[in-house]
């Protein structure tokens, strides 16, 4: 089983970051890899079980189900149902925590998944750096622009 863990610091208060990032379907507003995203069946984006259906700027199509959501813990977990990547059993968590010194936000984004050894390095890069790390940088820009 492959694991990817990325963390970062956003120079903004945790409540401001979470208010923006808590929208499970909001990644289309700030993530540079997302072209278009919708929640299926008109469900709210914070309802456990909702499915976001989206396309990437590279033309890929994904469907992801929200498995858990907590405003108290400022986190959500989701799994991939459909992906162009050669992966299985993908489960990811996004979480933010306060950094009390300096009133900043600590962001964690991590995933586990099964992938063949021939694809592992490429997929770890794609998930870790191209998706998670780039997303944290883009999220900070979006929060600060708000």
Would you give an account of this structure?
- With 146 residues, the protein is of the alpha+beta class.
- The protein has a single domain (2-145), classed as START domain (Alpha-D-Glucose-1,6-Bisphosphate, Chain A, domain 4, 2-Layer Sandwich), CATH 3.30.530.20.
- The chain is 26% helix and 44% strand.
- It has three helices and seven strands, in the order E-H-H-E-E-E-E-E-E-H.
- It has a seven-stranded antiparallel β-sheet with strand order 1-7-6-5-4-3-2.
- Strand 5 (75-82) and strand 6 form a beta hairpin.
- The protein is globular and about 45 Å long.
- It starts with a strand and ends with a helix.
- The mean pLDDT is 96.
Low-confidence region ranges = none
Share of residues in helices: 25-40%
Strand order of the largest sheet: 1-7-6-5-4-3-2
CATH architecture: 2-Layer Sandwich
Give the biggest sheet. Answer: 7 strands, antiparallel
- Counting helices, strands and paired strands, the structural category is alpha+beta
Order of helices and strands: EHHEEEEEEH
InterPro entries: Polyketide_cyclase/dehydratase (IPR019587), START-like_dom_sf (IPR023393)
Organism: Chelatococcus asaccharovorans
Protein name: Polyketide cyclase/dehydrase/lipid transport protein
Pfam families: Polyketide_cyc2
């Amino acid at each position: 089983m492959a694991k990817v863990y990325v963390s970062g610091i956003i120079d903004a208060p945790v409540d401001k970051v979470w208010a923006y990032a808590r929208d499970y379907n909001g990644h289309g507003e700030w993530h540079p890899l997302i072209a278009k995203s919708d929640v299926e069946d008109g469900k709210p984006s914070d309802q456990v079980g909702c499915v976001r259906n989206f396309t990437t700027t590279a033309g890929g199509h994904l469907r992801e189900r929200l498995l858990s959501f907590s405003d108290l813990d400022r986190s959500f977990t989701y799994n991939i149902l459909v992906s162009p990547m050669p992966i299985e059993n993908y489960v990811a968590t996004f979480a933010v925590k306060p950094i009390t010194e300096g009133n900043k936000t600590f962001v964690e984004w991590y995933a586990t998944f099964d992938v063949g050894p021939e694809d592992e390095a490429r997929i770890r890069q794609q998930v870790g750096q191209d998706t998670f790390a780039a997303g944290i940088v883009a999220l900070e820009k979006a929060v600060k622009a708000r």
